[in-house]
Design brief:
Layout: H1 3-6, H2 17-31, H3 39-57, H4 63-79, H5 89-101, H6 110-129, H7 134-219, H8 222-250, H9 258-273, E1 277-282, H10 290-310, E2 316-321, E3 324-330, H11 338-349, E4 352-359, E5 362-369
Parallel strand pairs: 1-2
Antiparallel strand pairs: 2-3, 3-5, 4-5
Helix pairs in contact: 2-3, 3-4, 3-5, 4-5, 4-6, 5-6, 5-7, 6-7, 7-8, 7-10, 7-11, 8-10, 9-10, 10-11
Length: 370
């Protein structure tokens, strides 16, 4: 949609209709003091005044019709301006001022130049016909030039005002698109958060409950099933803690330090899956942004979940070096689901990257924030 179609046309002339009424009033007042000796001069003044009023009314709706009417007024009255006490100059000045105000788009100032040449020639003819001196001729040109400059200045003001309105409209459209993009981004973030916070805990919880059901149904092992239920409870508590951590990060509250949080995740994974997880932390302590911490923790949980699903019983090695986290498990984990794709998006939001793939006989996940 074009911006011009969104904006209503602005009125031409000083202060729009108010300026036109005032200009017409000035013309009427000056013409009321005219005392031409010939009746035909009154006829010319009356007809051209009517044309002036019509041209002023049509300035916005029909600019070229207005140009024709006002141009006729300006040239006609310039021809009789030399007649004594005709006061025809006032109609020349108000007409040419209105023409200068009209915005003719790509034609620019060519219409006003053409009318100006016609008026100058008409002044010369009037000076010759009514035997006016050269000083009269040049004084008429001076008045006309001053009023033309005034009209051009007014037009420039209106053009700038319209450009400002268009810029404001463009800004509003840009803000609307930005808000729409932010809404879509927020939906994606919520989807990632739901997966990051719940998928790990609920996935492990589902496995534990399935094992507990199998122990009761197939073996009648109440003690073993009870232990699995207890593990499920711990997983539910862990999921609640993770949800709180995610909310704290979104609200810029305090979140756990990354090394301690990774150690807790590794310990919990060992308890839940009976798989050894070795964590190595290198590099000095570093204060990380809460969003970076949550993103790296999510990557670690996702990598451990995939290792338990696709390579059960295989040892896992985690290494943290500054803002670079690598998770390696024995046995190749094929495929990439929504979890890794979501973590890649989350890391991208904090300026990070995530790679996952085979590394010899191992599967290696690397999450790194610059």
């Amino acid at each position: 949609m074009k911006l011009k179609a969104l904006l209503p046309p602005r009125p031409h002339g000083e202060s729009g209709w108010v300026g036109r009424v005032l200009t017409t009033g000035v013309a009427v007042a000056v013409l009321a003091t005219a005392r031409p000796a010939s009746a035909w001069v009154w006829v010319v003044l009356g007809v051209t005044f009517a044309l002036f009023v019509a041209g002023s009314v049509l300035m916005t709706a029909r600019p070229y019709v207005s140009l024709a009417l006002l141009g006729t007024v300006a040239v006609s009255n310039a021809l009789i301006a030399g007649y004594p006490q005709s006061n025809a100059l006032v109609l020349v000045l108000v007409a040419i001022t209105d023409i200068a105000v009209i915005d003719f788009g790509r034609r620019g100032n060519r219409p006003i130049i053409a009318v100006g040449i016609g008026v100058a020639a008409a002044y010369a003819g009037s000076a010759w016909w009514f035997e006016q001196p050269d000083t009269w001729y040049f004084s008429q040109l001076l008045w006309t030039a001053v009023l033309t400059a005034f009209g051009l200045n007014r037009r420039q003001y209106e053009v700038q005002a319209r450009q400002t309105e268009q810029l404001l409209e463009q800004t509003r459209l840009a803000q609307s698109e930005h808000a729409r993009a932010a809404t879509l981004e927020e939906r994606g973030r919520i989807a990632r958060d739901l997966h990051d916070v719940l998928a790990h805990s609920l996935g492990a919880l589902s496995v534990q409950l399935e094992v507990a059901e199998a122990l009761l149904d197939e073996r009648g092992d109440t003690a073993g099933a009870l232990e699995r239920v207890r593990r499920s409870r711990r997983l539910a508590v862990q999921g609640l803690t993770e949800a709180r951590n995610a909310v704290a990060a979104l609200r810029a509250d305090e979140v756990p330090e990354l090394p301690q949080a990774l150690a807790a995740i590794a310990e919990q994974h060992e308890k839940d899956h009976g798989t050894a997880v070795r964590l190595t932390v290198t590099g000095g302590p570093r204060k990380l942004d809460s969003g970076v911490t949550v993103a790296l923790l999510g990557a670690a949980r996702e990598a451990l979940t995939n290792a338990a699903k696709h390579a059960p019983g295989q040892a896992v090695e985690m290494q943290l070096d500054g803002m670079r986290l690598s998770v390696r498990n024995k046995g190749v984990t094929t495929g990439e689901g929504y979890g890794l794709a979501g973590m890649r998006e989350r890391l991208a939001l904090v300026g990070g990257t995530l790679t996952a793939g085979a590394d010899g006989d191992d599967w290696l996940v690397v999450a790194e924030v610059d």
